[in-house]
UniProtKB/TrEMBL annotation:
Cofactors named for this entry: FAD
Domain Acyl-coenzyme A oxidase N-terminal: 23-148
Protein name stated in the entry: Acyl-coenzyme A oxidase
The keyword Lipid metabolism is assigned to this record: yes
Keywords noted in UniProt: FAD, Fatty acid metabolism, Flavoprotein, Lipid metabolism, Oxidoreductase, Peroxisome
Organism per entry: Papilio xuthus (Asian swallowtail butterfly)
Chief site of localization: other
Residues that hold FAD according to the record: 154, 193
Active-site residues, record numbering mapped to chain: 437
GO biological process, alphabetically ordered: fatty acid beta-oxidation using acyl-CoA oxidase; lipid homeostasis
Subcellular compartments: Peroxisome
Superkingdom to which the source organism belongs: Eukaryota
InterPro entries reported for this sequence: ACOX_C_alpha1, Acyl-CoA_ox_N, Acyl-CoA_Oxase/DH_mid-dom_sf, Acyl-CoA_oxidase, Acyl-CoA_oxidase_C, AcylCo_DH-like_C, AcylCoA_DH/ox_N_sf, AcylCoA_DH/oxidase_NM_dom_sf
Amino acid sequence: MTKGTQADVNPDLKKERLKCNFNIQEVTFIIDGGKDKTLQRKKIEDVALNIAASIDEVPEECLNLKERYDNAVRKSCVYSNIVKNELLEITGLEALGSPGLRRTADAFFKDVSPFMLHLGMFVPTIIGQCTPEQQAHWLPKALEMQIIGAYAQTELGHGTFIRGLETTATYDPATEEFVLHSPTLTSTKWWAGGLGNTANHCIVVAQLYTKGQCHGTHPFIVPIRDLDTHEPFPGVKVGDVGIRMGFNTADNGFLRFNQYRIPRENMMMKNAKVMKDGTYVKVARHEKLTYGTMVFVRVTLVMEAAFNLAKAATIAVRYSAVRRQSQPKPGEPEPQILDYPTQQHKLFICIATAHALQLTGLWLWRTFEAVLADMRKGDTDSLPELHALSSCLKAVSTSDSAALIEQCRFACGGHGYMLSSNLPLLYSFVTATRTYEGDYTVLLLQTARFLVKAWEQAESGKVLTPTVAYLACAAAKEKVVWSDSVDGMIRSFQAVAAGKIAACAENIKRLTKTGTSLEDAWQLSTVRLVAASEAHCRAMICQAYWHEVTRLTASCSASVKIVMEQLATLYLVYWALETTGDLLRYSTICESELNKLQLKYEELLALIRPNAVGLVDAFDFRDEILHSTLGAYDGRVYERLMEEALKSPLNETSVQSSFHKYIRPLAKGKL
Ligand SMILES: CCCCCCCCCCCCCCCCCCCCC/C=C/C(=O)SCCNC(=O)CCNC(=O)[C@H](O)C(C)(C)COP(=O)(O)OP(=O)(O)OC[C@H]1O[C@@H](n2cnc3c(N)ncnc32)[C@H](O)[C@@H]1OP(=O)(O)O
Ligand SMILES: Cc1cc2nc3c(=O)[nH]c(=O)nc-3n(C[C@H](O)[C@H](O)[C@H](O)COP(=O)(O)OP(=O)(O)OC[C@H]3O[C@@H](n4cnc5c(N)ncnc54)[C@H](O)[C@@H]3O)c2cc1C
């Protein structure tokens, strides 16, 4: 964080920091995943942010579309050099996935870098889908930025249904080439980040045909532009998809092929190969390993959701400590808006959710690494569980994060609507994560498939995998006894999930018994399947969050343990109150217990209040990364709002030319 001198800090924020009763740094270490991770992150920030400080003379949002893109490319090149020449020196290849790199990128780009997909999907797909020989060829070029890549899977006509993609890659053994073709308008690749004007290479997912047979979708590395002139190659039509709600500097593009040829070796051949004579050879032991990059990105998006929500919470909590409004007690000064319980209700759940998603995300990452290790040994048994886990966690974390970022904006009143608060840009960025890399509903339905199967296994007494082991106890189908202890609440959330899954399974069974096909019975049950999947995910987040807090605070100071547990309890109580209907249905909770729960929630808000600013300080965002007039460390909100306003091009002259062109003639009746 940029602390400045204490004299510059808003007096209310100063007082808040004096009130904080726990060691902020200890919490930072927990959030980062350990002291070593914090130190590494800070080192990366120190290197990168020296340069970021003077990267923009004019605020990004004041530029026109084309200038914004050019500016984003300029900054991406500066940033790439820092990554290559400085950051990789500090941590080696590990830097590419490090939180330090992710965070410092935000100091350079308020919107999105057109290189994001190069690093976020092009490089990971080379690592995940290429043979070692192919990696040796492509990876150094990509890391040196000699080539820039995009990931083009989605088409104009299909995003969700990958098997429905229309682009074809037909093998020609005579020349040992694949012929890429886009047979229809709807087969045009659409949306790929970095594709429109920036990338010269692209991973293209296409239906593979060889010896007259289709073998389904496979990934190919496709050169699309000349490395020197940057002109698209003949047979390639590429461009920008048009103005979007956000991501306007991400260069999302379209791509069409007209019988465009690439060498056979450009098929990514880790999981399947086409031999010179056109023989198709399946290498992978699991059908869906070609979807591996998506699983990887879904896993990372859980922490991405936490990161962005933490930024919004920092902005809104600091602002709420500075902002004073209304006069609830006559004759007394206007209170800080953070003192209003309704404001605490809006904001403390944001801090708690950021913790819940970050700690669950770190746990998911470890699970992902364990599954990868199994797969390296040829064991793919845990892949379905990882797919189910990453699908629902990606869906719920991105959805919660987007909704709560918007809540942070509401919590900042009119000033939250200013682009300079950074809340609108944060929202438009995060709300896209609910859609991309698998739409919310679609991914929850993927998890639901796994849950219904697990339920059937539970009913027949089979051993269940860890994340659904709770279904075994629930198979008895009795209401769970309510208790407002943490364990009791988690048991109740699991009972809700189990009850909903059971109801789905029964509904499908009932429908099929009366002659409905299994596919139709599934469709007729999807509204409840989505709800069941979400309940399962919520129970899992609650369990993982509490488990991680207990584990990570075991050796912490008492005050840190207390505040971390207060937040985690708040998260559980909040969701119990949000889902009272479900609890009444699946647990023994009654009216008096609900009243007790409401009181407990209000007590928790009051307990957390003195530590609110300390808690957001513990996210440890430097001002350069927050980019917010409302959320800077020093709380000079009004001064910053005025300074930013004066940077608007509309303030460059006291009278605009439109006055002379239109308003005056209108007033004089001469228009
Ligand atoms: C070097 C210097 C560089 C410097 C550069 C500086 C730059 C600075 C920037 C730095 C910042 C970096 C930050 C990085 C952040 C990363 C951001 C990434 C941004 C991403 C942007 C968006 C990208 C995209 O959206 S890509 C497109 C994604 N598309 C999708 O997700 C499509 C969703 N659809 C599907 O996943 C499937 O089609 C599905 C699952 C819905 C259905 O598939 P299906 O084939 O039809 O399967 P189905 O019949 O339903 O099921 C069969 C069976 O298979 C199981 N299954 C399905 N999927 C999987 C799977 N993935 N894994 C395992 N199993 C799977 C399914 O469950 C079924 O099983 P059964 O029930 O047992 O039959
Ligand atoms: C900002 C952004 C960046 C992107 N970047 C990339 C990229 O770099 N590369 C890339 O390849 N793609 C990218 N995408 C595309 C993205 O992956 C898709 O938009 C996403 O997977 C959703 O697919 P869709 O657009 O086809 O939505 P659709 O599937 O058409 O969804 C529309 C609606 O239909 C519903 N629906 C669809 N199928 C079902 C079903 N089976 N059951 C019930 N409901 C269903 C959905 O829930 C949704 O409500 C990006 C998208 C965005 C917004």
